[in-house]
Design goal:
By secondary structure, the chain is α/β, with parallel strands linked by helices. The chain has ten helices and six strands; from the N terminus they run H-E-H-E-H-E-H-H-E-H-E-E-H-H-H-H. It has a six-stranded mixed beta sheet with strand order 3-2-1-4-6-5, with helices on both faces. The radius of gyration is 19 Å and the shape is globular.
Length: 253
C-alpha cells in the first residue's frame, strides 16, 4: 500500500532530511542496514529513508534487517510479508539470544541491556555480510530526551545518544535520522499507514520499561506548562557549555 503523502508525511520527511544534513548522516555510495524490529519507529524510518532516497542528491542503498531474538510468540512473518509486499531488500536473521540471556545473565543485571548488546552484535555481523557500512536505528526525539534524563537520574552522567557514532568495531557507523521527529508524529504516521506492528515478545519488557515510562510521563506533564520543552531539551544537547559543568577533564577557559 502506498505511503500517504500528507502534511504529516511531509513534516517527518523534512525533519529527517534536516537531521541527515545537519549531521552528515548519509553520503555518496552508502549501503545502509536499517534495523526493522516491527515497531512504529523502525517502519517509519525505513519508509522515510526510502522516499528520501528517490530524490536524494547522493546515491545510497537500503537493506532492512530484522533480528529474531528467539522469544516465543514473535510474529516475524508479519514483518517479512510487509517488507516483501513493499519491495524492500531485506534479511530476516534468526538467533538464540533468548537462550543465551537465560543462561548467561547475571542475577540483578538488566535483561534488556544484555539483549540489546547481543542484538547489536548480530546487526553488525549481518551488516558485514550484506556489505553495509552504516546501520540506521529508529530512535526519535523523545528517545534522546528520555535517555538524557535516565542517565542523569539513575546513572549520574550527562549523556544521551549520538545521531552519528562510529561503532566500537571501527567498521560501521550508527546513524539515527529520526532525532528531530517527535514520537507522537511517528505514532500517527504509523496509524495512518496501517503498518503491521509486531509487539516485542520479550518476557521482561514490561518490567524493564518502567523507568523509561516514568520519563515519558514526566515530559508529558512538563509539556503542559512548557509546550516547547522537547525542542528546548534537544537543543540543549547541541548547545553544551563546558565552562559551566563540573567535569575536571573539561577545559574551563
Amino acid at each position: 500500500m502506498p505511503i500517504i503523502e500528507d502534511k504529516l508525511y511531509q513534516r517527518i520527511k523534512k525533519l529527517t532530511g534536516k537531521a541527515i544534513g545537519d549531521f552528515n548522516l548519509i553520503e555518496e555510495g552508502d549501503r545502509i542496514a536499517v534495523a526493522v524490529s516491527g515497531g512504529k519507529d523502525s517502519y517509519t524510518l525505513l519508509h522515510i529513508l526510502d522516499h528520501l532516497r528517490r530524490r536524494a542528491p547522493v546515491r545510497y542503498e537500503l537493506v532492512a534487517v530484522n533480528v529474531d531474538a528467539g522469544y516465543p510468540g514473535f510474529r516475524k512473518e508479519l514483518i517479512a510479508r510487509h517488507l516483501q509486499d513493499e519491495g524492500f531488500d531485506y534479511r530476516m536473521e534468526d538467533t538464540d539470544c533468548y537462550r543465551i540471556i537465560s543462561e548467561k545473565r547475571r542475577p540483578g543485571s538488566s535483561f534488556c541491556a544484555f539483549c540489546a548488546r547481543l542484538r547489536r552484535g548480530v546487526l553488525y555481523s549481518v551488516a558485514d555480510e550484506l556489505g553495509c557500512n552504516k546501520l540506521a536505528l529508529g530512535h526519535h526525539l523523545d528517545d534522546f530526551i528520555e535517555t538524557l534524563l535516565l542517565n542523569q537520574f539513575y546513572i549520574g552522567t550527562l549523556a544521551a545518544m549520538s545521531p552519528k557514532l562510529l561503532a566500537d568495531n571501527g567498521r560501521h557507523t550508527v546513524i539515527r535520522p529520526l532525532v528531530y521527529v517527535p514520537e507522537a508524529d511517528i505514532q500517527e504516521f504509523s496509524r495512518r499507514n496501517a503498518f503491521p506492528l509486531v509487539a516485542c515478545a520479550c518476557p521482561a519488557h514490561a518490567m524493564q520499561d518502567q523507568k523509561r515510562q516514568r520519563m515519558k510521563k514526566l515530559i508529558r506533564d512538563l509539556a503542559e506548562e512548557i509546550p516547547h520543552i522537547r525542542q528546548s531539551m534537544i537543543g540543549a544537547l547541541g548547545n553544551v557549555q563546558p565552562r559551566h559543568l563540573l567535569d575536571p577533564h573539561l577545559k574551563s577557559f
